[in-house]
Design a protein that fits this description.
- By secondary structure, this protein is of the alpha/beta class.
- It has a four-stranded parallel sheet, with helices on both faces.
- It is globular and about 35 Å long.
Length: 112
């Protein structure tokens, strides 16, 4: 499986990346500053720039099977970081099943 981990260079994110790699998965590490990332790049890790406060530059995640958010609130971040991260992950992730003819789950609207 191929996972994207938002906040992959943080304390929890590093643990998630390591555990996924130990289980034989591929990882897309989503970090604010790839040049300063401490993510292990030697084993099946694709490091991509992703900042929840710059939605225009958020990478497309159509090539991954699942997304995980491991972001927290840093000293300079406002409380909107967690919600912004979740929204961007959901918008950027277009599951592979859609490309293989499997319909996406439908949501129903209940009207008055």
């Amino acid at each position: 499986m191929r996972f994207a981990v938002l906040g992959a260079s943080g304390r929890v994110g590093c643990l998630l990346v390591d555990q996924a790699l130990e289980r034989g998965h591929q990882v897309v590490a989503l970090v604010r500053a790839p040049d300063r990332a401490t993510v292990a790049t030697s084993r099946q890790v694709d490091v991509r720039r992703a900042d929840v406060f710059c939605p225009r530059n958020f990478p497309d995640l159509g090539d991954v099977d699942a997304v995980v958010s491991a972001i927290g609130i840093g000293k300079g971040d406002g409380p909107g970081a967690l919600v912004a991260g979740a929204r961007l992950l959901a918008a950027a992730h277009r599951p592979r099943r859609r490309r293989h003819g499997v319909p996406r789950p439908r949501t129903s609207r209940m009207g008055p």
